[in-house]
Amino acid sequence: MARSEKPVIRVRSLARPxxxxxxxQEGAEPKADQTAxxxxxxxxxxxxxxxxxxxxxxxxxxxxREFGFHPLVLDDVLSRVxxxxxxxxxxxxxxxxxxxxxxxxxGVSVASEVDFFLGPDYVITTxxxxxxxxxxxxxxxxxxxxxxxxxxxxxxxxLLYHIVDRLTNxxxxxxxxxDINLDRLDERIFRDRAGRAVRELSDYRRDVISxxxxxxxNMSVINIxxxxxxxxxxxxxxxxxxxxxxxxxxxxxxxxxxKDEVEGLDDTFNTLYSYRTNETLRALTIIxxxxxxxxxxxxIYGMNVRLPFEHDPHAFGYIVASMVVIALxxxxxxxxxxxx
Length: 340
Hints:
single chain, alpha+beta, six-stranded mixed β-sheet, 13% strand
């Protein structure tokens, strides 16, 4: 298919060599769930929405035959290792966006890729079938005629906006979860649970870093949609894409705040832990210094030589009393110096 004369906006993946790993396994026998088609389709008036969770080779080839998509685009759909991008072709747009899914087992958010095809009268979505907002939106449109009319009553670009908006709004509950967890961690740091606080602080830092890596590349794609610098994008949709851009900016600002807060909590924890360690060493040092002269006295009177008061029946009491006096004098001196 011929390219548009407009400059093509493209960010190619740096991970394309990984596709060879998948091709090397072509000789293996496919599993049942990898060959079965999961394609679903909704239609309202002249607009079609085709959704393909976990697309198979047959699904992608069928899309190529039906819509004439470029072979490289179809290859990108199957690779699942693409970075967010927007490819502008003559009569359709190919868009890749990433949205986070929290992996409770690993305690970190991972990227879930969604591929979009935007045509004059259709929107096609392919994904791994794990994004609850997208699955819920499809189920609602499929079951409720009014919801279908709401989502698909306008242009194909408006439907694309509704899908991206639904996925973007799902980011805010994740931000609230992190905010609540950081508040709890802030309280826990001042308790005597150093080991648990260190583990949680490390987990939250890793989660925030992962979210930043997922969200940031999407923003350049949303900016392209907002500016309308691609075919099939209408000026009337610019305010809608501007709203999506504002949402991503808010999420990014929150992630920046979370990053600063995690770093601040880390500094606070290190300061408190150093202070507690110094207090422990101070107490042990004081005890060692007090015991030093007492050990000296007991060692002297333990030698097999003639010493004063050796034959006095009260010698042991005198020695113990002198040791107690020395210990009390040293404690009074340390307190006067403000060492404890």
